[in-house]
Amino acid sequence: MHPICTATILSATLALALSVPVFAQPAPPPAAPRPQGQNPNGMRVFLWTGLKSHSAGQHDYPQFLADWSKLLTERGAVVDGALHFPSPAALQNTDVVIIYKGDAGYLTDEQKSALEAYVKRGGGLVSLHDSLCGPDPAYFARFLGGAKKHGEVNYTLDAPVPYTVADSAHPIMKDMSALTLFDESFFNLTLARDPGIHVLATAEIAPTRSAGDHKGEQVPQIWTYEHTLSGGQPARAFVWMQGHVYANFSNYQIQRTLLRAIAWAGHKPADDLINYVPPPRPQRQGPQATGAAR
Fold this sequence. Notes:
Helices cover 25% and strands 21% of the residues. It is α/β, with parallel strands linked by helices. The protein has one domain: Class I glutamine amidotransferase (GATase) domain (Rossmann fold), CATH 3.40.50. Helix 2 (61-74) links the parallel strand 1 and strand 2 (78-82). The termini are far apart. Mean pLDDT is 88; it is low at 3-18.
């Protein structure tokens, strides 16, 4: 090609390129503002729940997500949650995972890997009611200290659950006395060994039809579990086996026990959430503060 033609083509191409407008990349959406007064340095909690099951007033997992998101935020925690297993990214930003989901022991291989990595770095777990149920209780007991097998008759159904406090000196049990809940208790548990669980309260199994020959047995219903997975950091778990009746979450003693357990599982002082005092709200300035007309 003639050099003059080549130069002409290059000049035209450059002019065309310069004439095409260059659009800037859209800015990422701003992060959602924190709730007013939220503690930016608070314990990071993930609520892993599920879809509603059972009759009205029972196993209300979505309501727990709504109620305890609010309660824990007001107590200074930074809260996330979902009706599904937390993503690896969510687990990286979590100190304590609270599980209130039926049969949470059903895990995929990817979820097992994520859970093991989370616990190995010292992540805390709080298991409520039938969350510790699944196909392989020995596997799930590695993380919670105990579990029960899905498909077995290992429950009382609706019945009195009379607590006998086994360790009143433990900081989690500061407000707990020998009360009786109308709820559901579990038996036929697979418990971890070496280390084993630390029992905080037991209950006598009520003589329901499903209890069968287990009636009258004294079975752990509240416990802690401190352990270290191979090559990991010390981790903590807490288990409360009631919560069949959702209203029991509002019981004064139960609620404060759970708040202390969440803090304890996150390697915080047990009263960290209970004693939290939100910072004062900033004072408004100008006409709005004095009620003057706008």
